[in-house]
Amino acid sequence: MSDNPLVTAIVSTYNSERFLRGCLDDLVRQTIADRLEIIVVVSGSEEGEDAIVREYQSRFTNIVGLRTLAREKLYTAWNRACRIAHGKYLTNANTDDRLHPRAYEKMASVLEAFPDVGLVYCDCLETEVENETFETTRSTRHYENIQDHSLYDLLRYCYVGPFPMWRRCLHDEIGYFDDEMTSSSDYEFWIRIASRHKMLHLRETLGLFLSHDCSLSHQNVGAIESEQVMRCARRTIELERVFPDPRIATDPPTRAIALTAMAELCLSGPWYKHPDLALEFLDRAAREGASNVILDNNRAVLLAAVRNRLVDAVHLFEKHLNEPAVRRNLQRLKEWNGLDADLPLEMMLVQHPMVEAARRKHGINPEDVPPLSDNPSRNKSEQSSALSPAEMEG
Predict the structure, then answer these.
(1) Is the pTM of this model over 0.70?
(2) Minimal CA–CA distance to 27: which of 66, 1, 47?
């Protein structure tokens, strides 16, 4: 390994002995292995990971081993490794997932070629077979939800996937992972990155994710954390970071459009919807003196549905009776008997160039990424030969 590694891979393991050899084999056979630092944090494990780490350290000079006597939370272990990492770029390497041999080369190439990109992520396959490799898997099922990036969409759900790579220097700017969380601190950290820097989806399948059943309690904790992360981010993020228009700060009509679009965002997406937050955004716009058909219609819908303020909703609808959707909503509200579970009212969508720009997604095809300069294809830290990419792919 060089004195200044390009990438640091962070491995945290607890009772994962059966996965660790395959994980380390994947890492030491990366095409940039002699520019790769591997930090393995054995977190209070009751199994034999320590012996495996020592075995690989005797053969490879680029492996750093850390051990804690007590089990730490995942993000505490990640932070411990991030603080001592030497790589220009960092990535988490989960013990049960597997990599294409050129995965780190290709993702590092994106960050090298585009210095304004803070994080890159790739596509991956999904398997239920333990210790399959990327080369041997028969899975054709892609990990769902991974898509091109926009901060607007990242506030709707997390699509980054299990194989991100980010710049180490970002930790000096925005801090580390929130180690009070159990499973959603990475999502919160991606939002922090995206609110200040570009992120890019590399449209290439470079990983293999092991899908397995989590306990119901773990699923519930993860769902609660993700909802809290999303709610906090939606409520606190600056409008100017989501919508690329400097007029938001000085032009009330432009700001009203942004607030209305944020309300729409809070009601969309495949994960969690926050009608109370949506109404907060619309109320802010109204307090600032804004009034237009979309704002008033949507605010009326939420006043009726969330706060049961039916009279106020009627007054807002009556301001725009020339709009067919508003007339339909007013008629439905007057006919509603109060027994149906939901009011059958229509929200109106925001159509504006500023909002369309915020929704624009960013990704890159592999053929558009310049090759990594000075790219050795073998791990020279081990005297015995490792498989070449051609041998592995053949």
Answers:
(1) yes
(2) 1
Q: Residues with Cβ < 8 Å from 74, sequence gap 6 or more?
A: 12, 182, 183, 185
How many whole angstroms separate alpha carbon 105 and alpha carbon 362?
20
Q: Which two tokens stand for residue 212?
A: 């397995």
CA-based nearest residue to 290, from 326, 250, 247, 255: 255
* In contact, 88 and 6? CB cutoff 8 Å: yes
Residues 381, 385, 388, 392: is their CA dihedral positive or negative?
negative
Q: What is the pLDDT of residues 137-190, one digit of tens each?
A: 999 999 988 999 999 999 999 999 999 999 999 999 999 999 999 999 999 999
3-state secondary structure of 386: coil
pLDDT tens string 67-123:
999 999 999 999 999 999 999 999 999 999 999 999 999 999 999 999 999 999 999
Per-residue b or e along 81-101, where b marks 16 or more CB atoms closer than 10 Å to that residue's CB: bbeebbbbbbbbbbbbbbbbb
Tokens for 85, please give them.
């990492």
Question: What percent of the chain is helix, strand and coil (3-state, nearest 5)?
Answer: 45, 15, 40
Task: State how far the Cα of 222 lies from the Cα of 215, in Å rounded to an integer.
Answer: 11
- Taking only the tens place, the pLDDT of each residue in 20-78 is 999 999 999 999 999 999 999 999 999 999 999 999 999 999 999 999 999 999 999 99
Q: Which amino acid is at 270?
A: P
Please list the residues that pair with 120 across neighbouring strands.
165, 200
Nearest to 332 by CA among 314, 322, 316, 345: 345
* 13 touches 52 (CB < 8 A): no
> Which neighbouring-strand residues pair with 126?
209
DSSP string, 194-243: HTTSEEEEEEEEEEEEEP-PPPHHHHHHHHHHHHHHHHHHHHHS-HHHHS
Beta bridge partners, 121, equal 164, 201
- Answer whether 124's CB lies under 8 Å from 203's CB: no
Task: Please answer whether residues 143 and 125 qualify as being in contact, where contact means their C-beta atoms are separated by less than 8 angstroms.
Answer: yes
Choose among 121, 143, 158: nearest CA to 270: 158
